[in-house]
Amino acid sequence: MLRKAIAALLISITPTLWPPRAAAGADTLARELSAKAVALVEADTGRVLFEKNSSERMKIASTTKILTALVALESCDPDEAVEIKSEWTGIEGSSIYLKAGEKLTVRELLYGLMLASGNDAAVALACHTAGGIREFAALMNARAAELGCKDSSFANPSGLDEDGHFSTARDLAKITAAAMENEIFAEIVSTKQTNAAGRSLKNHNRLLLEYPGTLGVKTGYTKSAGRSLVSCAERDGMRFICVTLSDPDDWADHTALYDWAFEAYERVTIKRGDEIGALIPVISGVKPSVGLVAGAECSFIFARGGEYAESIIAAPFAYAAVVRGGLAGELVIEGGDEVLARLSVLYAETVRKRAEEKLTVWEQLKRAWYLANEYGVYRGMIYY
User: Fold this and answer.
1) CATH of the domain at 96
2) Structural domain count of the chain
3) Could you report the per-residue pLDDT of 2-47, keeping only the tens digit for each?
4) Which residues are known catalytic residues?
5) Are residues 182 and 231 in the same domain?
6) Under 8 Å CB-to-CB from 123, ≥6 apart: which residues?
7) How would you label 320-355 residue by residue, b for 16+ Cβ within 10 Å and e otherwise?
8) Which of 54, 221, 286, 324 would bridge 39 by S-S if both were Cys, CB 3.0 to 4.6 A apart?
9) Same domain for 243 and 113?
């Protein structure tokens, strides 16, 4: 029996040009940035829109704490109490000055971790969560691996310089995208100033005050790592994550990267029921063809003023009767060599079978086989 994949109906709504304005602006931007490594990604999809040495393994200082907070939140109840032990106090570097015997909630420690960058808060969270620094680092590495981070290794929860502790701009963007999906994390990193456990805590992230649409996330610095900054900003339905490593002018670089991204890209939305510019011939129908509509809502970002290509994976024809709302195939939207979106497409109307139509036995067999395998087209394969 013949088994064949059909990719029928290629509809070029517009020619594929990718991405016109965005690429030109990126070239100029790359020359102006001070950062040694950069990754700018779309938060929802992880699409990398701009990068520079984004896969280079580097020291990341306190941006480590993004993963620390994520692991702690996924392992603990944010309102559970933590009694501070003496060995968790007096930690090198930035501190919220924990005292042995005092009790803080996990949530309060997280505020101290993400706003004041308390290394003692990092140690307290790690030891409370996993029983020790090394055990917690193992959890960090496991979570990073789950997120697809192939060039990261974590040895401590604070980001202090240590052998075997490194990441990349691209990996940090993946970690941050996951963390920002956690509502408690997102609330904490967007807080400009708060009081927690009798401490006044102020967020070190200047972008929260200076750049409209900023949602967080974390600063970092050690002498050997230099300045590190991870941020997230949202406007016009577009959310971006920006990571810069070893960047002496990080505030200006993030501002420039966001200005470029929000200017260069726009969100395109296809709504359920929107017409798709294609007709499928109908065999034995009262009408010769049937239109298609989108079976679901989807949206994607694309270079402003650019052009993309749409194609439909479907059978080259349908046998009547065709039922309105029945699955016809899949719409694939591409920009260059990237798939921007996929969604089901449905028949736009019912097309009844012609009453006078008489099929031969062979035609009846073909029709029966087609109908039995109609939904195979949604899997990209149809058998006949």
Assistant:
1) 3.40.710.10
2) 2
3) 222 233 344 333 333 333 334 447 788 888 999 999 999 999 999 9
4) 62, 65, 117
5) yes
6) 88, 91, 133, 157, 158
7) bbbeeeebbbbbbbbbeeeebbebbbbbbebbebee
8) 54
9) yes
